[in-house]
Design goal:
- It holds the Pfam family ThiS.
- By secondary structure, the protein is of the alpha+beta class.
- It is built from three helices and five strands.
- The chain has a five-stranded mixed beta sheet with strand order 2-1-5-3-4.
């Protein structure tokens, strides 16, 4: 995957927890995204690659390098996103 204007990509690590891990069938991965990709872009790319996981991913909270992220936050090269579905318990 390359940015069509510059031909460059950046690596983003993804870690999936609980229902997101179960829906995707993996605990983590690294994907290539174009520079300037937002949290929503990255999550959308994962959902598009695994459509059955989209309902779970749509409800996830996302941490960007350990801090709560907004969908519009730009993901820097080498960042890690944690996808945390809602959970119940005490």
């Amino acid at each position: 995957m390359t940015d069509q204007l510059t031909g460059t990509t950046q690596a983003v690590g993804l870690r999936y927890f609980a229902a997101a891990r179960a829906a995707l069938g993996r605990a983590e991965e690294t994907i290539a995204v174009p520079p300037g990709a937002t949290v929503a872009d990255v999550v959308g790319r994962v959902a598009a690659a695994t459509p059955a996981a989209e309902p779970v991913l749509a409800r996830c909270s996302v941490l960007l390098d350990g801090r709560r992220a907004a969908p519009s936050d730009v993901v820097p090269d080498g960042a890690t996103l944690d996808l945390l579905p809602p959970f119940a318990g005490g």
